[in-house]
Each structure stands twice: as C-alpha cells, then as structure tokens.
Known about the structure:
This protein has one domain (about 30-130). The protein contains five helices and no strands. The protein has helices spanning about 10-25, 30-40, 50-75, 80-105, 110-130. The longest helix has 27 residues, at about 80-105.
Amino acid sequence: MLTASINLIGVIAATAVALIIGFSWYSPALFGNAWLNSITSKGKKAPKMNAFGLIMLIVSSFVTAIVLDIFIGVAHTTSIGGALAVAAIIWVGFFFPKEIVSAAMRHHGKMLAINAFHDLIALLIMAAVLIYI
C-alpha cells in the first residue's frame, strides 16, 4: 500500500512559488509578449485574466504541489537530487506530452517552448521548496 504524508506548509510555499514563477514568466519583462504574439492574431486583443481564471490557477498550482509532494514521498527521497529527478520525470511523463499536443493542435511552436519550459522550471523549483521545507 502506498502511503505518503503531505507537508502542508511546503505545499503552500510551493504553490506560492509556482504562482510567482508563472506571473514572472508570462510578464512582458520575460516571455509574456512572445507568448501573447504566439496565441493572438493581429488586430485581436490579448485574453484577460478574470477572477475565475485566477482561482483555477491557484487551485491547479495547489493540486500540483500536493501531487508532487506525494510523488516525492512515495519515491522515498530526501535529497534535492532525488526531488528534482521526481519533478523531471513528472514533467517528461505528464506535462511535456500535453504541451506537445496542445502546440501541435494550435500550430504554435513558440508557445510550446515557452509553456513547456515554464512547467519544467516551476516543477523543479516547487520540488526544491518541498524537499527543504
């Protein structure tokens, strides 16, 4: 039987870190303009974040942090290297394939790189937070 305890403080911290990474990653200072250009047509307005979207972003980041914490626990790793390996495996197995299909269906190659590497960086840093807290 698989058992794992959830580090609630670590999960909350990892959620906060994921949100900070996301807001920074998709800001105009980093990749926001390139991302917007890849998803919008000329003359169309960029999508706006609404309250529901923000709530779903927070909930999905929280769920991701919980599942990542469980996977780290099930892997019985207590090292940063082990936690990063778990995060990388999750990215390769679940996040990256989803981004490939999404980009292929929408014909947005640039969006693939921006989104996929955001997911990888966020997962790796979330794993580091979870293992240290």
